[in-house]
């Protein structure tokens, strides 16, 4: 089973899966393989429904989050499909497996004022132009962290105000860029006189393409400088982008295209956020909605 696990993970790399997803799948399969080895289940034929249930029951006893469990199940299901398509198992055990439903979690987002404060807070004067451009692009275009990291200078069309982004599954899409973000990027590029069109859009202090950890640190320090108490991640800015657009009249289909969602259902989670906002406004504004309120 070890060899087939390695073959499967190698196949994921060929499919250009995101580093984050690849790390998660690798970790999940390593955990599962450790369980199988401890129980002397080292052959592919041992990858059956009974043994998979035993492993998942043990994982569930550790009281991990439901969505983490669902990710583990997804990793194992993909591995099972890999084995099945290569004729290494006769029956895919997951065809008889009912997975629990995903826990619905509303995305965490900033208020428009908090987003504005964050855009103006930069962790160092030395790299303030770069950091402002990063923040403006993440919030102004709703990019995933990996999408921003992968941008090259030639991907940005400064005249027409858009960027070509390589999203999940290596799917390319066009995203609009705000005038403020474009100005911020151009101001930052003035500090890099010897760049090529094929150069990374954002680089680290070492001159290499900026990393995911580097972006995380920029946002963390910017949040501290802006005196925002809550935990903010690059994805918080993507959620804020989507929520603020929807609150200001953007339709779901357009939002789906800008976010690069494969299905509209992935975008519809933001309607719940907007409905919560509408309910809060209603509860604070309508006299009949207030406790003890009278007309």
Description:
- The chain has 295 residues and is mainly α.
- It folds into two domains: 95 residues, Tyrosine recombinase, N-terminal domain (DNA polymerase, domain 1), CATH 1.10.150; 171 residues, Orthogonal Bundle (hpI Integrase, Chain A), CATH 1.10.443.10.
- 55% of the residues lie in helices and 4% in strands.
- The chain has 13 helices and three strands.
- The protein has a three-stranded antiparallel β-sheet with strand order 1-2-3.
- Strand 1 and strand 2 form a beta hairpin.
- Helix 6 crosses helix 10 and helix 10 packs across helix 13.
- The chain is globular, with a radius of gyration of 23 Å.
- The N and C termini lie far apart (71 Å).
- The C terminus is likely disordered.
Features:
295 residues, mainly alpha, DNA polymerase, domain 1, hpI Integrase, Chain A, three-stranded antiparallel sheet, 13 helices, globular, disordered C terminus
């Amino acid at each position: 089973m070890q060899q087939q696990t390695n073959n499967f993970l190698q196949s994921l790399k060929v499919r250009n899966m995101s580093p984050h997803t690849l790390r998660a799948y690798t970790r999940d399969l390593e955990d599962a393989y450790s369980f199988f080895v401890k129980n002397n289940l080292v052959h592919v034929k041992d990858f059956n429904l009974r043994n998979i249930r035993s492993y998942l029951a043990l994982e569930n006893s550790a009281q991990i989050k439901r969505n983490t469990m669902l990710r583990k199940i997804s990793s194992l299901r993909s591995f099972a499909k890999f084995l099945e398509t290569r004729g290494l198992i006769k029956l895919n055990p997951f065809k008889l497996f009912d997975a629990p439903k995903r826990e619905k979690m509303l995305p965490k987002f900033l208020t428009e004022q908090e987003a504005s404060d964050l855009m103006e807070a930069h962790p160092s004067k030395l790299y303030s132009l770069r950091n402002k451009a990063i923040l403006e692009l993440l919030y102004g275009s709703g990019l995933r962290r990996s999408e921003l990291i992968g941008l090259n200078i030639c991907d940005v069309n400064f005249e027409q105000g858009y960027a070509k982004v390589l999203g999940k599954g290596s799917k390319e899409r066009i995203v609009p860029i705000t005038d403020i973000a474009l100005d911020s990027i151009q101001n930052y590029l003035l500090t890099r006189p010897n760049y090529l069109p094929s150069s990374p859009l954002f680089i680290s202090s070492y001159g290499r393409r900026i990393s995911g950890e580097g972006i995380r640190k920029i946002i963390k320090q910017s949040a501290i400088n802006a005196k925002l108490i809550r935990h903010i991640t690059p994805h918080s800015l993507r959620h804020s982008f989507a929520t603020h657009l929807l609150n200001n009249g953007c339709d779901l289909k357009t939002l789906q295209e800008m976010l690069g969602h494969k299905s509209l259902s992935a975008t519809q989670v933001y309607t719940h956020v907007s409905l919560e906002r509408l309910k809060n406004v209603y509860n604070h504004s309508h006299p009949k909605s207030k406790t003890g309120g009278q007309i």
